[in-house]
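Entry 14. Structure prediction run on the chain below.
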Amino acid sequence: MLALERETVCVCNDETNEWEVYSCSPKTITKIKKAGLELLRVDDDGGHYFRGDYGQVSFRAKSNGRNWTPEQKRAAADRMRAIANKSKE
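Output returned:
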C-alpha cells in the first residue's frame, strides 16, 4: 500500500462520548494501541478499527521548538560536559 493510500479516520460521537477510529497506517496503529483503544477488527487489507472513550484521544498544538539564548546553550553544554566527564571516571 502506498503512503498516499494509508489513512486514519477519527469520528467522535458526542452522544456516547466515544471515538471510532480506522487506520491502515502502521505507525498510527501502534500509537492507537499504546493509547489503549479497543481493537474491534482488522480487515483483509490490514485496516484496523478501534473504539475508545472520549478521553483516550487528544490533540495538541504544534511545538515551535525551544528558543535558547546563548547563555542557556552554554549552560546546557556545560552540564552535558560535566555529565560526560563524570561517567568517564
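The CA atoms of residues 55 and 62 lie 20 Å apart.
Filed with the rest of this week's runs.
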